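Researcher: Go.
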Amino acid sequence: MQLTYAGILTNLLDMEVYAKTKLRDNIYNILKNVARFGKEVEITMHWSEKDLPNEGTVIMSKEKYEQMQELNYLQKTDTLDAVLNRMANEKEDDFDLRNAY
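Model: Structure:
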């Protein structure tokens, strides 16, 4: 399986969606589930008929946010591409335990 930046972020597309009223009614349980299980939640924010259909916010755990920040940094610095390329093209003698430390 080839890893890609898009593939790493795919799970963000599979999140529960709540209207702002539903969030208000269940905020404690929603936040507890986000923190406990690391599952992102989308909150839709429709203020008027002129709003864009995807206007809203996403709630995610602090751990997931930090992972995304690190991933973003690695992608911006081209480190992620280099690592993924090395993983895809690794050879048996790429790593020698005798020289690891």
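Model: Strands lie at 16-19, 41-44, 56-59.
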